């Protein structure tokens, strides 16, 4: 009987964690801020990646910096930066100063908050933003929009369409990847291929790996160095990642509570994958 109860408990824990990353509301994972005291970059690297929270990442190469899906506030039970760190980010103070380009995949609150974005753009007059028309429409509703309007650009490719864009001297391909065919099918969810520091990065927002959209972009020919993929890509569609994206490195974002589900299910087909669960963790490529 004891063995049965333990097995049932473990199964329930997995169910809770799996439910968490697609349908929030099952309990916020413990906030863990990365300790950088013992962390040193490798001998040769060109880009530093800082994990913000949820699907947010900051790419830095020399004086050039790109933030993707990092400016959001606590939303449902998704992990978010604690207030002191969020204050640093939104006010554009170190270590979050000097961001050249902000990219936002879509309007959902665990990826984007209009007030947070506007606040950063007001504090950092050299920063540009590219996102969907839906995100731009949200920003347009804020009282301060006129002050930032000339640095905000809407790019909304259709499903399966790739739009090359240059902003702040940075080359980006904006991908119309969509948000699946379910209740979020009207959401303009963008993917981004970013070239920075001689490296190529892929971020897909909340793309559905089973939709067949990503196969249209021939990403395997892009030489993706690092793919930032929602954790469910690693469990639901590992062949898509291996065959159609072919990244040199996989970094899982949008992770469920790792203390509940354990890392093994994500690493079974991706033994070298980075599982981003520690806020402000740094990696070097």
Describe the protein's architecture and organization:
This protein has 285 residues and is of the alpha/beta class. It has a single domain (30-284), classed as Metallo-beta-lactamase, Chain A (4-Layer Sandwich). The chain is 26% helix and 22% strand. It contains 9 helices and 14 strands. The strands form 2 sheets. A 7-stranded mixed β-sheet has the order 6-5-4-3-2-1-14, covered by helices on one side. A hairpin with a 2-residue loop joins strand 7 and strand 8 (170-176). It starts with a helix and ends with a strand. The model is unreliable at 1-30 (pLDDT under 50).
Quick summary:
By secondary structure, the chain is of the alpha/beta class.
Q: Per CATH, which architecture?
A: 4-Layer Sandwich
Strand content: 15-25%
CATH class: Alpha Beta
CATH homologous superfamily (4th level) name: Ribonuclease Z/Hydroxyacylglutathione hydrolase-like
Through-space gap between termini: 49 Å
Number of helical elements: 9
**Which sheet architecture does the biggest sheet show?**
7 strands, mixed
Average pLDDT reading = 89
Give the SSE layout.
Layout: H1 2-22, E1 48-51, E2 57-61, E3 64-68, H2 83-90, E4 101-103, H3 114-123, E5 128-131, H4 133-140, H5 145-148, E6 152-154, E7 162-167, E8 170-176, E9 190-196, E10 199-203, E11 226-230, H6 231-236, H7 238-245, E12 249-253, H8 258-261, H9 264-267, E13 274-275, E14 282-284
Parallel strand pairs: 3-4, 4-5, 5-6, 10-11, 11-12, 12-13
Antiparallel strand pairs: 1-2, 1-14, 2-3, 7-8, 8-9, 9-10
